[in-house]
């Protein structure tokens, strides 16, 4: 049977971006279906009735939702160029930090954009502390995945790439060369890698998108 | 080298319980270290400096934190009686629902305990809707893991067992035989299984613990 791979996503979603990157890096051909999240399609509601969110990967008619779950599925289904390290302890470390990026760094950034004044300052400090921990993890390795672009690189990059562009437009400074030189260099290096580079939506389109959502804070679909 | 397995936990934590269950079901001997979360030990802070939370599994001196990450580590390190199904799509399904139990059902239950009046009623309805989805998933299978006690059974059971005991003491009705007959029967069946049964702290001790935290809501360490 011929493989049928579809991805329901939203171009401005870091969680969609990570699946696009993963499929590109594995060299898997897929059909991309852009979702209008302000008017959700029957297709999305059919394939992800629990969360009604993107991304959803549909492989030979079977849907998989939740970006971290999708990444593991891709890695287990197409086993060439594995994203997760082989050794169980390194796999656990990658999964630990991926959860940290999604549940701590990203969630704290969302809170920051909704806050003002002193509260905002406090939350920004919190993000700074969280980023420091990841910077330390990266310091002795070229990639977070240690052995090349891996699961954690894909997860973290999709978030930090958005942070980097976002601060060109908004007033929140989430990642800077001065504060996080290692992470900054790493984002730059990953942006240039073949496979990654072609998956990134144009910087200008992003800037325009964020500019139009300036008042609503950290608007990400 | 002889295996050295330690578990830093808290007896009243469902997240600790799931690791105890997993180790017991795999037949792995370990040293259990009870943590006083009101006065965190240097050992816990050393092994989990990022979250400072239990459970932490320490295997031959290497720490692994976050209960879902630990479960995958256990399954990948001691490969007999696998918890996760073999087939990638079934693995993805188990991971999807495990995230759902932790990030939706458990988090909504926490919110419910802090709420009052109309807000509480709304949140309770939300939990009911979430539980219905899982009940549906379980309906056609004896276990959530399909092929025997698996990853998702361990994850969900550790939460629902606490729900079941808790409602003997508190006023929130989280799970009932009338509303969720399939889940109810499944919790009962799992409680009786050898390996699971011996890992459960005595019901009376739990009831006493919850009674003493009646005023503070859904107190779980």
TrEMBL record, chains A, B:
This protein's species is Hevea brasiliensis (Para rubber tree)
> Where in the numbering of this chain does the GST C-terminal domain appear?
87-218
Catalytic reaction equation(s)? RX + glutathione = an S-substituted glutathione + a halide anion + H(+)
Enumerate the spans annotated as GST N-terminal domain: 3-82
At the top level, the lineage of the source is Eukaryota
Q: Which family does it belong to?
A: Belongs to the GST superfamily.
InterPro entries named among the record's database cross-references: Glutathione-S-Trfase_C-like (IPR010987), Glutathione-S-Trfase_C_sf (IPR036282), Glutathione_S-Trfase (IPR040079), Glutathione_S-Trfase_N (IPR004045), GST_C (IPR004046), GST_C_Tau (IPR045074), Omega/Tau-like (IPR045073), Thioredoxin-like_sf (IPR036249)
Q: PROSITE patterns, per this entry? A: GST_CTER, GST_NTER
Which E.C. number(s) belong to this protein?
A: 2.5.1.18
Q: Which residue ranges traverse the bilayer?
A: none
One GO cellular-component annotation of the UniProt record comes to:
cytoplasm
**What does the record list as GO biological process?**
glutathione metabolic process
Which is one GO molecular function term here? glutathione transferase activity
Q: Name one Pfam family in it.
A: GST_C
Identify the CDD domains for this entry: GST_C_Tau, GST_N_Tau
Q: Give the keywords, sorted.
A: Transferase
What name does UniProt use for this protein? glutathione transferase
């Amino acid at each position: 049977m011929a493989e049928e791979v579809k991805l329901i996503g939203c171009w401005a979603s870091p969680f969609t971006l990570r699946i696009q990157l993963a499929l590109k890096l594995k060299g898997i051909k897929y059909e991309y279906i852009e979702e209008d999240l302000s008017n959700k399609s029957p297709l999305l509601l059919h394939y992800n009735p629990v969360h009604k969110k993107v991304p959803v990967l549909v492989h030979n008619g079977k849907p998989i939702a939740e970006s971290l779950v999708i990444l593991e599925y891709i890695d287990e289904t197409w086993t060439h160029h594995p994203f997760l390290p082989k050794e169980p302890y390194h796999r656990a470390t990658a999964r630990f930090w991926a959860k940290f990026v999604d549940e701590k760094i990203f969630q704290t950034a969302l809170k920051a954009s909704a806050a003002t004044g002193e509260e905002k300052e406090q939350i920004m400090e919190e993000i700074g502390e969280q980023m420091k921990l990841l910077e330390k993890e990266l310091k002795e390795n070229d990639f977070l995945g240690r052995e090349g672009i891996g699961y954690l690189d894909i997860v973290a990059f999709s978030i930090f790439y958005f942070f980097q562009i976002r601060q060109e437009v908004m007033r929140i400074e989430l990642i800077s060369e001065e504060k996080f030189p290692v992470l900054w260099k790493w984002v730059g290096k990953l942006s240039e890698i073949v496979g990654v580079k072609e998956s990134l939506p144009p910087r200008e389109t992003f800037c325009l998108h964020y500019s139009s959502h300036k008042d609503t804070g950290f608007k990400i679909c």
